[in-house]
Design a protein that fits this description.
There is one protein chain. The chain is mostly helical. Helices cover about 55% and strands about 5% of the residues. The protein is built from 5 helices and 4 strands. Strands 1-2 form a two-stranded parallel ribbon. It has a two-stranded antiparallel ribbon with strand order 3-4. A hairpin with a 2-residue loop joins strand 3 (about 90) and strand 4 (about 90-95).
């Protein structure tokens, strides 16, 4: 289940109602991609966060979604929706749109080497 409401995604894309199933899949993937980049999970509200902590599915350093994370997910969603094939840049494959990485970077943990 998505953290971001499907209607927010549909409005962002200006998608047609017939595309809702596809948009939901891309929205789920956008959120998952953002969480993988952050190396932490985010939740829509305190109730969802508390339930995840109690059932052990919250992971390391869970947090509530912020406006920046929401915007990043919508940028990723738009990228997935507009580019239904892998996108390549001059330096190689592009995984996340640059703007979304900039919005997510301050919340990232466990950066590694």
């Amino acid at each position: 289940m998505s953290v971001i409401d499907i209607e927010v995604g549909m409005l962002h894309l200006r998608a047609e109602p017939d595309d809702q199933v596809l948009v939901q899949r891309y929205l789920d993937a956008a959120e998952d991609s953002a969480m993988q980049y952050l190396q932490r999970r985010f939740f829509a509200d305190n109730t969802a966060l508390e339930h995840a902590v109690l059932d052990g599915s919250a992971g390391r350093d869970p947090m509530l979604i912020t406006p920046s994370i929401l915007a990043a997910c919508l940028l990723i969603l738009g990228h997935f929706y507009d580019n239904r094939i892998d996108v390549f840049s001059e330096s190689g494959r592009t995984d996340l749109p640059t703007g979304s990485r900039s919005l997510l970077a301050p919340f990232r943990v466990a950066l590694g080497v």
